[in-house]
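Table S5 (text form). Sequence records supplied for joint modeling of the two-component complex.
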Amino acid sequence: MGHAQKATEFNKDEAKVNWHDKALWYVREKRDKSAHNVQGWEYLRQLGSGIKANVLSNLDKYLIQFETNAKNNGIQVHWASNAEEHNTIINSILEKHNAKKVVKSKSMLTEECHLNPFLESKGIEVVDTDLGERIVQLAEEPPSHIVLPAIHKTKEDVDVLFQEHLNTKPSGGNPEYLVGEARKHLRDKFLNADVAITGVNFAVADTGGVVVCTNEGNADMGVHLAKAHIACMGIEKIIPQEKHLGVFLRLLARSATGQPITTYSSHFNKAEEGKEMHIVIVDNGRTEQLSREDFRASLHCIRCGACMNTCPIYRRSGGHSYDYTIPGPIGSILSPGKDLKKHSSLPFASTLCGSCSNVCPVKINIHEQLYKWRQIIVQEEKQPIVKKSILKTAGVVLSKPKLYKMAGKSARFALKHAPRFMIYNKLNAWGKARDLPEVKHESFDEWYKKRRKNE
Amino acid sequence: MSREAILKAVKKNKPEVLPLPEIDESAFQEDIDVVKTFKDNLALVGGQVFEITTDAIDAKIKEQYPNKSTIVATTTKSNLGNVEIDKNTDPHTLEHIDLAIVEGELGVSENGAIWITANNSLVRALPFITNDLVIILDKRNICLHMLEAYDNIAKRDRDFGVFISGPSKTADIEQCLVVGAHGAMSLTVLLV
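The corresponding structure-token record, covering 647 residues in total, follows.
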């Protein structure tokens, strides 16, 4: 099922779609307000983009430097070419510690690698501790947004879910009550966990340390209570120097939620005495994306989600319609690189309005990359016959001015006088949910000429 | 083995070397009252802040948190601590700490964040596991923005450190902001 079909499903509940649309737009507005408060914001984005471009062009050296510094601080560094290796490495660390209970803070990489089902099949309890992630975990769903994983759920949905799994009382969806109950439930998990797994927001080459950002404090509650910490990162999380955090931490939270910074920005450089720290560095298709000149800038992404919040398609189709770990505009340029056939509908899930590129804190040319993927997809993947023949006809008509004029005239005539069933048929995708605009009796060309004559 | 494969693939696929941009910090310069902006931003992120003298610290804490029974203070600036901890304290035993009083190293005006190290909290879990948190900060140690902050903390022993900006919070249920997720339920900053 392609994006359009899945989006149709999401759109069946109109009230919910409207709420989803508005809620995300509100986050986008908060982002604007927050960004405009920063002196030199555009320069900051420029720096973010420039530093990331330098990182990609020197990535092998930075990775080695990072590894050396991390090892000097007693951190154990592992490398995984793909998801399977990543999962196996983590399982072997857990086995070494005889770990049966694991708490995990937000990590899109472990979602990408399907770590949870893998560990569960080995008899290990994995608890996602970010509240939004816990909600979707209990609902047995993937996150629908990378920063707001449960944005597709109403508070009433959460109420029912918690009644079932946490034995809460019906509260009609009282957020304070539900968060309080989740706090108790997860505190118990933190206190009894053997190992904590976290993602990585930034890995600093010149110190060998990693930074993890949360608002809830769940990464720290997990790490500081467990006897071992495993941090999982894609190779592109590297930044050259610690002072560059001064650029990226200024950009990240403002772009994500409009906060000036996340509540906690935790810098892990060494394990606490008597404990262990591991870092797993993962490729899983990233080096291949690095080879694609037109698309490598997608690896600049710092996972803020701003492109999702601003996207008119994402807001009205929901994260699950993308059927990929990273949804939205950025997911639509990352996913075809992983599996062109499976994700071939995603680069078309865009109006190419460019809003995603405008808000991206590291200036990824997202909408241009979407357009470039389309060029590749129409060459390599079979397109629907209707789309193909319509575009072919349009190509002929648009290349011949006389034909174009005639086609315009007859279309205007037909739209005015033809019966409704002839116009609003299967070929007219635009007319599915709305009426066509009122038809004028003259073309722009005719109107313009007349106007000039009258001047 | 994967290490070599990944590094080899990166080397083969990476573009020509692009320069690392120099950061021109003058672009971020602002002539503002950093203490005032810090206080405003701290309020924005849900914390409360009081500017007081050192000898008024304990009275202020008692006024703000009158009913706390288990208190850890890792700073000599407060005498309210009644639970002793040291670097070897098992963090699990801090489960029922009502209030933690720690010193902050550095405040950041642009976002109300305060830098706390493992040295400040003795046990890393303390500022997270405590029900409520008080941070004492010297107002002379407030800088303008994060770039300046990293200059200030560049020469430190790197083990663990955290920027804390306000109490823990979540908006994961229908975008309703709820203060008090997994970390401290409230944050009070005493500027001295």
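Note: Helices of chain B lie at 2-13, 34-44, 57-64, 118-121, 126-129, 146-152.
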